Amino acid sequence: MKKLREKITEISESLRRKGYRLTPQREAVIKILLEHPNQHLAAEDIYAMVRKTHPEIGMATVYRTLELLSNEKIINQLNFEEGYSRYELESVDHHHHLVCLKCGKITEFNDSLLEKVEEEISTQHGFAIVGHLLKFYGYCANCADQNQER
To answer: Tell me, what's the pLDDT at 62?
Structure first.
């Protein structure tokens, strides 16, 4: 991943081109997401981390920032059927998620077979696919082992 400052500058320029400013609060939220890649943070997690350096920030500001960044395709808003959203930076490498129903662990993975299936679906149906979300629900190795021990 690009250096933190370079990535923040890139995001700032993207926002500026769309008529938005990179406020200190927005930068703090972006910095947390950059510092915690692949962690799928909830808004409350981001809020708690941002408050360590910006104690004046409010939860509503974090939510508004996440909504803006999601609408502008800078971050992805993910729903893992937990009753709240999680967030990750938009990535050039498309990936999917494995979600453990017991411990909640989320694992990212890539699979070239799925890319081939997507191409086939696009061809068969004359449909220009621009994106998709794929989540598998089940039990991680650790939780599956614990279930078998009982």
So the answer is: 98
